[in-house]
Amino acid sequence: MKRLTGFQPTGNLHLGNLLGAMRPLVEAQETAESIAMIADLHAMTMEHDPPALRRSTLGVATMLLAAGVDPARTAIIANSQVPEHAELHYLLECVTAYGEAARMIQFKEKSAAGGPVRLSLLTYPVLMASDILVHDVNQVPVGEDQSQHLELARTLATRFNARYGETFTVPEGVRPESAARIMDLAEPTAKMSKSSVSAAGRIGLLDPPEVIRKTISRAVTDTLGVVRHDRVNQPGVTNLLEILTACTGSPAGAYSSYGALKRDVTEAVDALLAPVRKRHAELSDDPGYVREILAEGKTRVRPAALATVRRARAAIGLLD
Ligand code: TRP
Fold first, then answer.
1. pTM, rounded to two decimals
2. Which of 21, 140, 263, 266 is the most exposed place for a label (fewest CB within 10 A)?
3. Which of 108, 191, 214, 278 is catalytic?
4. Other CB atoms within 10 Å distance of the CB of residue 232
5. Which numbered atom of ligand 1 lies nearest the CA of 142?
């Protein structure tokens, strides 16, 4: 069993990223061979700042290590550093229809946002398919927003295999048991996101304790005055209960006031994030180490990636 989890390079990693993707990856280390991939190539599909991109890529790698990803078991890579991703991307473009790419919801949304549309934004899901197929992975943990892209990866793999001969493993999308869906604290019907309108909605993984306390104390609740798990009528309270459960790993007890619930949530989030902050600070003193981990990850995954590309080249009719 082989898994690949993808991360966008972003400077604003938050509690939702940790509980929804990073921690499940850490837990899966016990049972699956995993690759943690930072999609720095994908970050260039929209207007971007080169120094900021470099910083974010290293920042996510640092955070993965701080969150407990063990580089001895999980290869941490950036997709730009393993050239087979880009090479296979082109081969897969040759089995993708223009209309298929143009129909993707994310493309339609992002291209409608105004400003020039990079061609790479259109081919973004083809590159994502390449990220997955090049490593022969069976499982890809994805959230709802990426399920259409994963479906395209499966379609391209199946199509290529049917047309040119068995080449790729057809991957499966999975939703890990332990993945928690953390909502925005200011707007609890939306997912906690790096692009939330206000910082009041998210807890940054490096937020100091006093900021965490303030953010949680201001979290939106309601006027019902009872603590119940009810996503429809009490989304804010329910989100707090779910954060508590996800942080402590055990079901939340009964609460008679929002204040008491918020105090326990604050304590639980703090207990979860304090060691991550500490480890992150240690790693930040040694950026050379993080670069080395990425180089090691690349060395580790490359032989299999090369073998896949070789297979695909031969199947599609290229010289070796
Ligand atoms: N598109 C994914 C996202 O926005 C990131 C990503 C890129 C990815 N390549 C991937 C995720 C491969 C899983 C597998 O989150």
1. 0.95
2. 263
3. 191
4. 7
5. 13
Answer yes or no: 194 catalytic: yes
Residue type, 83: P
Q: Please give the chain's pLDDT, 320 residues, in tens.
A: 999 999 999 888 999 999 999 999 999 998 989 999 999 999 999 999 999 999 999 999 999 999 999 999 999 999 999 999 999 999 999 999 999 999 999 999 999 988 899 999 999 999 999 999 999 999 999 988 999 999 999 999 999 999 999 999 999 999 987 888 999 999 999 999 887 767 899 999 999 999 999 999 999 999 999 999 999 999 999 999 999 999 999 999 999 999 999 999 999 999 999 999 999 999 999 989 999 999 999 999 999 999 999 999 999 999 99
110 a catalytic residue: yes
Q: In this structure, which amino acid lies at residue 254?
A: A
Question: What are the structure tokens assigned to 68, written together?
Answer: 């407990």
- Reply yes or no on whether 214 is catalytic: no
How far is ligand 1, taken at its centre, from the CA of residue 205, in Å?
A: 20
Query: Residue 99 gets which letter from DSSP?
Result: H
Specify the pairing of strand 33-38 against strand 172-174. Answer: unpaired
- Probe ligand 1: pick from 149, 156, 194, 195, max atoms within 8 Å of CB? 149
Segment (H or E) for 101? helix 98-102
Two tokens, residue 56:
């974010």
